[in-house]
Amino acid sequence: MLERPIPDIEAYRYYLMAKHEILNYSEDGLARALEYLETGERAVGKNVLLLSARGQVYWQYVNAGISSDSQYLIKAKHCADEALSIDPNSAHAFRLLGLISVHEGESQKAVQLLKRAILSEPNDSDTLSWYSAICGLSGKAHAAMPLARRILEMDPLTPVYRFVPGLLSLMGGEFADALPSFDEAIRLDPGNAMLLWCRGQVLTLLQRNEDAIAQFQQIEADCPGHFFAQLGALMQAAINGDSKAVEQAASKELKEIASCDPHYSWSMAQAYALLGDTKTSITWLECAMQKGFINYPMISRWDPLLAPVRHTPAFDDLVDRVREMWENFEV
Q1: In a domain? residue 315
Q2: How many CA atoms lie within 13 A of 155 on its CB side?
């Protein structure tokens, strides 16, 4: 507060409103975020916080499943470069570059950049939450759990941050332990399709199929057309063993967006494994691995949905490569 990173209180208010909309995981929310940031820039000009937030909006178009257009990542990178031209040591710019690195398939680089940001600003809950998420995807959830608790101490009211301990429980194979965090986050933000979908995935992993289907149907009812509604519809069809419905749900757009993200690619692999389609499931696991889902314990034994594709030559080859990447990954 003493540093006054944005010299105008109204511009700072617009920055905070934009940050809230980024975590809404909706296209309308991201459009509002850009409007807020433009209003802030009109008041104070180019600013590190406003630039980094703008870049995070562009990045979120890909991360939230709204678009697979790589131009959004290019625009996000441009924002980070502009921010660094103003402050070469900007923790916000390093965080943004770290997030971009995830979708470029460079998770180790992402961790290094996020750690650099944390070293500069150790109490930035946004950086801590994304660092925790990458640890989970990389099969190192235990390393981030203390940070997840710290996030809640610093910011107990932001719904998506309430979900971080649950995400780490999910990625640590403790599926039932993930639900309370997800439920608390959804209570604070009941319309967040990303939170609802993650809860549906956990229910599927717990093999509570009726509850999972009801959860996915809720997303379809509340957020029709949303990426997470489409991904939920695909998983719902897979649970029912309906291969025709899976192929109908697996649109070209859905596949393109899912292939940009390690978590979504893993979910696609789960769906095809449930159908017994080993070849397609392995293809999606390969995609997930290339994007940074190197959670070896999850892939090799924890995930019950992948059981139908285990003990095949193609799976054995993939899991050997995942194990090596997981063992060498540093957090």
Answers
A1: no
A2: 19
Structural domains counted in the chain: 1
pTM, two decimal places: 0.95
CB burial of residue 198 (10 Å; 0-12, 13-18, 19+) = buried
On the 0-12 / 13-18 / 19+ scale of CB atoms within 10 A, 3 is: exposed
Query: Is 110 inside a domain boundary?
Result: yes
End-to-end CA distance of the chain: 30
What is the rounded average pLDDT for all residues in the chain? 96
The residue segments making up the domain with residue 50 are 1-122
Phi, psi torsion values for 36, nearest 5 degrees: -60, -45
> Which CATH number characterizes residue 55's domain?
1.25.40.10
Tens of pLDDT, residues 265-293: 999 999 999 999 999 999 999 999 999 99
- pLDDT class for 4, splitting at 50, 70, 90? confident
CB 312 within 8 A of CB 283: no
Asked whether residue 8 is domain-assigned, the answer is yes
Q: Rounded to whole angstroms, how far apart are CA atoms 170 and 177?
A: 8
CB count, 10 Å around CB of 133? 23
* pLDDT tens, position by position, 33-52: 999 999 999 999 999 999 99
